[in-house]
Amino acid sequence: MNELKLDSLIKLLDDPDDSVFNLVLVEILKEDISIVDRLEHIWETSFEELVQQRIELIIQQIQLNDTKNKIKNWASQETLDLFEGIFLISRYQYPELKLKSIQIQLEKIRKDVWLEFKNSLTSLEKITILNHIFFDHYKFKINRDNTELPQNSYINRVLDTRRGNPISITIIYTLIARSLNLPVHYIDFDNNPLVGYFDKDMARLVNEEGSNSQILFYINPSNKGAIIGPKEVDYLRQSAENQENNHQPEPCPDRIVIKRLVEKLSYDYKQAGLLEKVNYLKEIAEIL
């Protein structure tokens, strides 16, 4: 959009008629995220409260549309990056969030674990070290004091507070483990997702085939990374509180992992009465 047209539209933002504003909104929303810088400059130089409020609304809508498009593009890729998926969901609430800042925090955790690794270690010994660094040193844990807090789902907030919900904690744990070349996958399980440690030769096939026949053992991030076997998994299935949406404990493609996180966010916002956010997240879930 050229400057002259944008200036003409901005001049209409002080019109109290909502129908006029809606026409302006439709025109500006045709632009991509690059127009936000120009809108922010106009906001900073404006002294009219109505104009500032409307520019804020326009910027928010542009950012939401941009995030939705990026998530749609992410979900359509043949090979997905789980980190990019959870980052984009956090960017929904925190549009100014920088990818690099999150990568730096994750890399610090990865490096602290890697420094303790030796080539002679068994799979169980490596997980024991990961658990010690992740849960004892960094003190990540489930936020049981406020399990329905939406911030529990956003990676930047979880990294800052070291508190999350079972889904976000399991995703971050999985990301760290994968960055250490450990053959793990998120195991879809309502209320208490697990991590499956696979035979290395089979791990790459999980997203394609969904087979869990080669899981060597299960890890429970909701219980400080406790190692559990099939009997404990059966017990967790039987004691699951939410039977209505109970998913089977099986390897979960990364696209569905992010969908579970979106579903959790949607539920939490619904409990908080923020229906506008719920409706947006439902659109995201449909994309996934």
UniProtKB/TrEMBL annotation:
It comes from the Bacteria. Pfam families: Transglut_core2. InterPro entries: SirB1_N. Residues 102-262 form the Protein SirB1 N-terminal domain. Transmembrane segments: none annotated. Belongs to the UPF0162 family. This is Protein sirB1. It comes from Aquipluma nitroreducens.
